[in-house]
């Protein structure tokens, strides 16, 4: 029994408290990263959703709306209701207002999943031979705070004489 009482290889109370204090400080520092990770994940999720919505709208514009719209502009010198949001050709876009015409582009506004999507179609093609390439820019904005989330670019391919 005396052998165990004379053994001084254990830890003192001071050493235990010091080790516990160091571990507590490290643990608290580590815990401060979790809220930042959650915020980062939320921002990333918003951006991914915005990119997906923009891509969906861009595909609709490139494959469905764009060629019909440009064909209508090219075949009718004074087209009727071409800029009207209720035009039956534009139902797939779900426009929230009439198409705005600027000096350099056509502006379309649509809303999907709480996001406002602004689509600009250049009036003049960038390539003009058998095919014409019209640049399209889709900008997605958070509807409640007008914060830009993403911007995508693409082209409408229009062949002379139709789609």
Automatic annotation (TrEMBL):
Keywords, in A-Z order: Competence, Membrane, Transmembrane, Transmembrane helix
- Where in the cell is the protein located? Cell surface
* Primary location: other
GO CC terms of this entry: cell surface
The identity of this protein, by name, is Prepilin-type N-terminal cleavage/methylation domain-containing protein
One of the protein's GO biological processes: establishment of competence for transformation
> What species was this sequence derived from?
Anaerobacillus arseniciselenatis
- Which segments cross the bilayer? 12-34
